[in-house]
Structure formats: C-alpha cells, structure tokens
UniProtKB/TrEMBL annotation:
It catalyses: ATP + protein L-histidine = ADP + protein N-phospho-L-histidine. This is histidine kinase. The lineage of its organism: Bacteria, Pseudomonadati, Pseudomonadota, Alphaproteobacteria, Rhodospirillales. SMART domains: HATPase_c. Its EC number is 2.7.13.3. It comes from Stella humosa. PANTHER family: ETHYLENE RESPONSE SENSOR PROTEIN, TWO-COMPONENT SYSTEM SENSOR PROTEIN. One of its GO terms (cellular component) is plasma membrane. Residues 320-373 form the HAMP domain. It is found in: Cell membrane. Keywords: ATP-binding, Cell membrane, Kinase, Membrane, Nucleotide-binding, Phosphoprotein, Transferase, Transmembrane, Transmembrane helix.
C-alpha cells in the first residue's frame, strides 16, 4: 500500500507550505483589517438605519405637537382648560380625530384632572388624576410624550402626549391630551424599506419596549389592569432588560447583543424629539456587515484553502512525478541484487529526468550482464584449462609412479628399494591431490575430509597396514581448503603417517594412528597425528629427543609453506604426536624446491 506521506512527499509539501505561509499571513492580516472595516461599516449602517427608522416617528411627534399647539389657540379649548367647556370644543376635537386615525382620542383636562372636552363623548367628565401623565403635568413646562398606557375608552395601547394649555385670560390652566395609537407608531418603521431581518423597538423613558416594527411586545404597568400574559415571539430578539434600561438612561447608544433566538445583532439607539422615547434598531451582525462579512470570510478561507490545495498538489504531484519513479528504480536495484540484470525500471510517464535515469540504469545493467557473461566464459575456459592441467599432471605422475615401481622391483638393494618405495608414495600423493582438483566442482579449493580419507586409504594399501594390524582412525571437520594448500598439507600427512608406521611400530607391532583435523573460531586449523607406538627417544635429561631426518625436514618445510608451525610431542602414555597449526585463509608459500632442499 502506497504511503502518501513518506519523507519525500512530506518534505515537498512542507517546502511548498513554507513558501506559501508569508502569503497566507499577509492575506490573514488583510482579512483582519477588512473585518475591522466591515464591522465599522456595519455599525455605520445600523446607525443610519436607526435614524431612518425614527424619521416617521419624529414626524408624527412633531405633527402631534403642532396639532396640539394649534388646538390650544382655539377659544373653546381655552375655555375648557379653565373648566368652562362649550359644545364647540368636543365637536372640534371629534372633527379633527376623524381625519387623523393615528390618534385614539383628543381631550382637554382642567387643573383638577377632569376631562372637560373630548373627541369621545364617554370620556367627558372622567377623572385622570391617577394617571402618570397627569401627576407629572405640574412639572411639565412644554410638550411631553412618553407615557405608555391603555386607552380607557378603547382599551388599546397608546402613548399619551401632553401640552400645557392656557386659560381664556392667558394664564396656565389645564392641558391638551392626545392618545397616539402604539401600533401606528410601530407601523411607521416599516414605511422606509428597512431590511427584512431588521427590527425596530420603541422604548419609553424606563427602557420598556412599547412596540416593535412587527407587533405589540410589552405590557404596560399592572396598575392599569392589563393582563400580563400578553407576549410576542418578537421578544426573542430583544436585548436584556438591563441593557434597555441603560439605553433609556442614555448610558449606551450602540451595543452588540445575542437574543433568545441565539443570533448576534448590532443595535443602535436614536432619541426621539421629545427626549423621553427612543427608537432602537437592530439587525444580525452578519447582515449588518453584508457582503463585507463574506468578503472577509473569503479572505480567511481562500488562502487556507489554497494552502491545503497546494499541499495536496505537492503530495499527489510528488507521488506521480517523483516517488513512483524512484520506487520503480529501487525495485529494479533490488532485482539487480538478485542477479536479475534483465529487469527494466517501469517508470511509466515519469518526468524526462527519471526516464533518462531509468534508461541509464538499464544500460548499465546490460553492460554489467555482458561483462559478467564474458567473465564467466573466460573463467569457464580457465577452469577447463586448469582441470586439463591437473589431469595431465596426474597422468604424468602416474607414469612416474609406474617407472618408480618398475625400478623398485628390479632393484636388489633393500635400502634402495625402500627409498624408491617412499618416493613412489609421495608421487602417488601428488597424483591423488591433482585428481581431486580436476574432479572437484571448484578447481580453486578441495574438501579436506574427502581428500584425507582417500589419502589414508591409499597409504594403508601402500604400507599394508591392514595385514600388519595397524589402523588409521579419522576425526575430520569437512572444511574446504585452498588448492594451493592441498599439496603441502597432503604431503605433510603422508610424511607423518609414513614416519609413524616406520618408526612407531617396528618388528610387527600393532596399534592405532589417530588423525584429526578441526577449525577454530579464529579461522586457524589444527592438524593432529598421534600414534600409540614406540614413542620418541628420551635424552639423559628426560626430554624427548628428535632425530633429524628427511621426513622431519620435509614436514617442517611443508608446515612453513602452509604459513603455520609444527611441533612434535610425546604421546600419553606412549607414542608420538605431530601437531601443525596453520591459517586456512593464509596464502601458502610456493617454494617447489623447499622439500628437496631440506632433504639435501
């Protein structure tokens, strides 16, 4: 399974990410500044819409004030304010009310709080002493608006407007009162084409929401007998009461609030002309910032998305353009390691450089294969030639052996016959070694155990050991030895066994000759030949005395040729032991005449 986040692709992705990080940071800074600008524009939009939303209400309030000022100039109204009403006052009020549906009632009250004149007949004579607006009339010096109550005549929510009136003599008397229908005030906010998701609240001087741009929200004070269960779904968007109170107290004019519906909104307050009522306009923050919000969002998401796409392109591109070709090259290298030099890298549509590299790989493999074929052919020819040489040497040595055998049989002298027999044994040993070399699968080395077993068998026949009751016991490790070491080690074994038979078992003595060969952990070999025969002569000091002779000289020469050392020890309890230590990997000294020189 392909690992798309291997070190190569990961480094490519990291390099590309590092290269894009400054751009992303720059875009994020621009996005942050853009967001700040968008937020500022959003607040300006909400502020302007709040002013727009209050325009009609201000016009209505100003029109109410002018209407009441105009009515106050009427003699009938002045007389009613003095407590001397005439029918003309009520007719005037009724005539005006029929043309102005935004008002629920127009009336004149005297100083004692009794209605002297009204557009609604059943209101005449009623007492308004207990109303909040009458209680504050003595403190009012001009036009006042902001008392939220219910009309006693129609039971509809109204905002009362009050203008002190002068009597017939021009002195302060009662007041002219107008009841402005609250739904009418709320509906005016919709006449300016405000955003659909915007909402307008009308607040009184206590921060109570009297109406909104869609419907009646709040409930007047319980003292007026209004059911407290009247609620509107629009109150879910309304800010907390504490914030509305601060707005009414002019401590806060702009703020951000999250309503019960979970949406964050920008709010801006505008004070109406009379000073006791407030228009509060709010709209969702996202809408307030309009397209700027989405532009800011695009500034943030765009670079991050670009960075993710770039990293993805680096990962996929690294896989398609680089990693896949490199894996194919590595697979080809593994095939070359398995000696499959005809394997070709499958780089597909990798870049030209990868394909050129793959072609170079394939060309190199072809050259190596051709060179290896040539070397194998040359080596086979040399092996064949070397086998032929060993074969011919073996044949020539057999001829020499035959000559020595014929010469030995024709010789009457026993000492000469013995010398010829020893020479024949040595020549046959050489012939045996060469036979094993040309018959071996590898002419450069030979198995020590195999050649030693054959050599021991050959010497047993040569010396008639079976008839004499002498046996050779072998304990050999199967270790290959170089061809250059095969001749000296075989001749050394021949001399050691011949000396043991000749000197260890005189006069028909019987016994056992142990021949062992082992390789140590250090790479050195130990050849040990021990007999249980007569043993070595003992000097006067009790030490074994070695008598020099041609056999001993040859063994020492062959040990040096192997790069080792030979020592002669007395057996326990009898006999003699020849020990030769030599390195298996060491190059042997090729001194063909050393044995002859030592014998001489």
């Amino acid at each position: 399974m392909t690992n798309f986040f291997d070190p190569l692709r990961a480094r490519l992705a990291l390099a590309l990410a590092v290269a894009l990080v400054p751009i992303v940071i720059y875009d994020l800074i621009l996005a942050y500044r853009g967001y700040q600008d968008a937020e500022a524009r959003g607040w300006a939009t909400v502020r302007q819409l709040a002013i727009v939303a209050s325009a009609n209400q201000n016009a209505l309030i100003e029109g109410t004030r002018r209407l009441m000022v105009g009515l106050g100039e009427s003699a009938a109204v002045r007389a009613a304010a003095d407590g001397s009403p005439t029918p003309d006052c009520s007719r005037t009020m009724a005539r005006v009310l029929t043309t102005l549906p935004e008002y629920s009632d127009l009336a004149v009250v005297d100083r004692q709080g009794r209605v002297q004149c009204s557009a609604v007949d059943r209101s005449i004579g009623a007492s308004v002493v207990d109303t909040p607006w009458f209680k504050g009339m003595t403190e009012t010096q001009g036009f006042t608006l902001g008392y939220f109550t219910l009309s006693r005549e129609t039971a509809e929510p109204i905002v009362s407007a009050l203008l002190p009136a002068s009597g017939s003599d021009g002195t302060p008397a009662g007041a002219i009162v107008a009841g402005i229908r609250l739904p009418w005030l709320g509906s005016l906010a919709q006449k300016h084409g405000l955003p659909e998701n915007g909402i307008v609240y009308l607040l009184d001087s206590k921060g109570t929401v009297m109406t909104s741009s869609d419907r009646f929200l709040a409930v007047p004070e319980p003292a007026h007998g209004i059911p407290q269960s009247r609620k509107s779904p629009a109150d879910e968007a309304a800010p907390d009461k504490a914030i509305l109170t601060e707005v009414a107290q002019r401590r806060v004019t702009e703020f951000v609030s999250t309503g019960a519906d979970g949406r964050e909104r920008f709010f801006s307050a505008a004070n109406l002309q009379n000073g006791s009522l407030y228009i509060l306009f709010g709209m969702p923050s996202v809408s307030a910032m309009s397209w700027s919000f989405y532009q800011t969002l695009a500034f943030i998401i765009g670079p991050l998305l670009m960075l993710m796409i770039a990293i993805g392109v680096a990962v996929v591109g690294g896989e398609l353009l680089i990693a896949r070709g490199i894996r194919a090259l590595l697979a080809t290298v593994d095939a070359y390691g398995r000696d499959e030099l005809d394997a070709k890298p499958d780089v597909g549509r990798s870049p030209r450089e990868i394909r050129q590299f793959a072609d170079a790989f394939a060309g190199m493999a072809r050259k190596i294969s051709d060179r290896e074929t040539e070397l194998r052919r040359s080596l086979d020819e040399k092996d064949a030639l070397l086998r032929e040489v060993h074969h011919r040497v073996k044949n020539n040595l057999q001829i020499v052996t035959s000559f020595l055998n014929l010469q030995s049989k024709s010789t009457k002298d026993g000492a000469a016959r013995e010398v010829l027999t020893e020479a024949r044994v040595r020549v046959r040993t050489l012939a045996l070694v060469h036979r094993y070399l040309y018959e071996s699968a590898d002419v450069r080395q030979v198995d020590f155990a195999s050649i030693t077993e054959a050599l021991a068998d050959q010497l047993g026949h040569a010396h008639s050991l079976g008839q004499r009751g002498i046996s050779i016991r072998l304990a050999l490790d199967s270790v290959p030895i170089p061809a250059a070491a095969a001749v000296p080690v075989a001749l050394l074994i021949t001399e050691a066994l011949s000396n043991a038979v000749k000197h260890g078992y005189p006069d028909g003595a019987r016994g056992v000759i142990d021949l062992s060969f082992s390789r140590g952990e250090d790479g050195n070999a130990e050849l040990r030949i021990a007999d249980d025969g007569a043993g070595l002569p003992v000097a006067e000091d009790g030490q074994a005395r070695i008598q020099p002779g041609i056999g001993m000289a040859l063994m020492q020469a062959f040990a040096r040729q192997l790069g080792g050392k030979m020592r002669l020890e007395a057996g326990d309890p009898s006999g003699a032991v020849v020990v030769v230590d030599f390195p298996l990997a060491a190059e042997t000294d090729d001194h063909g005449e050393e044995g002859a020189d030592a014998a001489a």
